[in-house]
Amino acid sequence: MKNRVALYLQDAHDLRDGLDYVQYAEQKGFEAVWQAESRLVRDAIVPMAAYAAVTEKLKVGSGVINNWTRNIGLLASTFLTLDDLAPGRIICGIGAWWDPLAKNVGIDRSKPLTAMKETVLILKRLLNMERVSFDGEFVHVNNIELDVVHGRKEPRNVPVYIGATGDKMLELSGEIADGVVLNYCVPPQYNLNALEMIQVGAKRAGRKLEDLDLPQLVVCSVDNDHDKAIDTTRELLTQYLAQQPHIAKASGVSMDIVHEIQSILGWPATHEQIQKAKHFVPEELIHKITASGTPDEARAKVKEYMDNGCTCPILYPVGGDVHLLIDTFAD
């Protein structure tokens, strides 16, 4: 069986360059591209449509949108639309978002598990072309269905993957999702506990761990110059550890380092602030939680994630030559 591999794109590249990257990844045997939607920068849906339009076999996933900001009817019709553009190639990756960002735009993330469960269950029913009434704590719909007058009326094959980091969300994902997008900036050993949690949820639903797909985001900086690759990753980690505390916690980084970085970085962080704070990120940490270095070093690290249960690495090129990264992991 061939090795599965996917590409992850965020906002570090020109959007039109992204079209070139996904076409190149498809040529080189990559299985999927996942588009991020995290900070208040690039939304996932517009690039996903563009990637779907310029490829023929590549799967296109949201990696990940949040379950708070799109009404359930809009969410379902959005993924119906993407599936119209690329039938059978769309994946809905969805996550619980994070504070302080959610709070800063007026979202109260109370009961994140209940909110996620309602969203995923009703989304799946709508994409199954059912007529749905549901009065939950977060999702309220009355006798609605996807209103297809022209075009395909059959149920849509859009698998739903939950981007889960904490134990309880991992457990819920095992119970209700088609797959789990395991997080990045964690050591490979993080997966062992994650798989246990997913298995607990799967068992509750009468499923086995093998019934779920478990791709994983992996920060990947590849350069023929080892030091250059490491420095690129250091800048990314500086920003992530300060702004996404749930990732810092999962990666096992000392809170002292996080607080030092936070004291320098504003929001949004400037290039100057990142340069000033980046020396707080030790090289040992970069090797522990990312696949950074020469092509051989990056491949060896990704293999560690695979050996710890990741079914398909989703490689996040944090800078440098994206074509080199694709070539490094091509069949």
TrEMBL record:
The signal peptide, as residue positions, is none
The terms under GO molecular function for this entry are: oxidoreductase activity, acting on paired donors, with incorporation or reduction of molecular oxygen
Residue stretches spanning the membrane: none
Q: Which UniProt keywords apply?
A: Oxidoreductase
Could you tell me which Pfam families the record lists for this protein? Bac_luciferase (PF00296)
Q: What is this protein called?
A: F420-dependent oxidoreductase
| CDD domains found in the cross-reference section | Tetrahydromethanopterin_reductase (cd01097)
Domain (Luciferase-like) ranges? 9-310
